[in-house]
Design goal:
Layout lengths: L8 H11 L15 E7 L3 H11 L11 H5 L1 H8 L12 E9 L9 E13 L2 E12 L2 E13 L32 H4 L3 E7 L3 H9 L9 H6 L9 H12 L5 E7 L7 E8 L2 E6 L2 E9 L2
Antiparallel strand pairs: 1-3, 2-5, 2-7, 3-4, 4-5, 6-8, 7-10, 8-9, 9-10
Helix pairs in contact: 1-4, 2-6
């Protein structure tokens, strides 16, 4: 389905919220097979600049490696707010992402953005959906991502590890991890490079720049309604902030696995080495990722 313009987010979020109580997620549920296409999307300069500031990217005339996710976010929300999508939008958490960028992407170019749901999977805390986003320039695929999103619900006990923004399993491109908030040995040895203090309003600022205004990120009151003690940082902010600090070549593969929520306000430490990076809060691991050649 070709869309003439990006969908308005507010009605989609409202529809998703209204439909959430009637959703009955399960791994074998049917899901929409529609591929949504935005044929000519260009980054809006003001929003791009706000995104670069909040995430720590230096504006260099190209899109940050995570920004096509923002360009496709409204289309993804259209798919995930549909009645036919079996997971409730309220409380849905981003658990992993793998990105492949084939070349630098000029910020003033128009891109064809396409999104689709490719499957559902069982998770020890509920059901995950896999969403693929692609960006093309001149008909050539220049960027693609594979994200997993978790709807938490009661499930039989299993041994699948991970925690995510609120619970996660490793995606196809994600590094393997240990139990909730723990790190495998190669990540645990990484040296601390930077420490960041995160304000209570970080989720609102990132939401304004990215369009992602999930209530779990906005205020303590709205987050508590969905099972979190305080607002939590967006997983994509933590990934983008780490990648801005790490740096990425024009052609690159990156992966991030969101292992535990980052409560706001709070403090985190960024550690990196050998193409790997990790975000910690004390002894707890919030995110693990890798940067490597495609």
């Amino acid at each position: 389905m070709v869309l003439s313009r990006p969908p308005a987010l507010a009605p989609l979020l409202a529809r998703g919220a209204l439909l959430s109580p009637v959703k009955r997620p399960r791994p074998d549920a049917p899901f929409p097979r529609t591929r949504l296409v935005l044929p000519a999307v260009r980054a809006e300069a003001g929003r791009l600049a706000a995104y670069e500031r909040i995430c720590g990217f230096a504006g260099d005339g190209t899109l940050p490696v995570t920004y096509p996710h923002v360009l496709g976010f409204a289309a993804s929300m259209r798919l995930m707010s549909e009645r036919a999508f079996p997971l409730p939008l309220l409380g849905l958490v981003h658990t992993s992402i793998g990105i492949t960028r084939r070349a630098a992407m000029p910020a003033d170019e128009r891109y064809e953005i396409a999104v689709r749901v490719t499957g559902l999977g069982a998770h020890r805390r509920g059901t995950e959906a896999v969403v693929v986003t692609e960006a093309r320039a001149g008909g050539e695929l220049v960027w693609e991502s594979r994200s997993t999103y978790l709807a938490r619900h009661r499930v039989p006990s299993s041994g699948d590890p991970g925690d995510g923004e609120g619970g996660s399993r490793s995606g196809e491109h994600g590094p393997r991890g240990g139990r909730d908030g723990e790190s495998p040995q190669e990540f645990g040895r990484l040296p601390t490079v930077a420490e960041w203090r995160l304000p209570a309003g970080l989720g609102r600022r990132y939401g304004a720049a990215s369009g992602d205004r999930n209530p779990i990120h906005l205020t303590a009151a709205t987050a508590r309604l969905l099972g979190f003690p305080r607002a939590i940082a967006h997983g994509m902010w933590t990934a983008a902030r780490c990648l801005a600090e790490h740096g990425t070549p024009p052609a690159v593969r990156v992966s991030a696995r969101f292992k535990a929520p980052v409560l706001l306000p709070g403090s985190v430490a960024y550690a990196a080495g050998g193409g790997r990076f990790v975000l910690r809060g004390g002894e707890r691991v919030h995110l693990e990722g890798e940067v490597r050649e495609p």
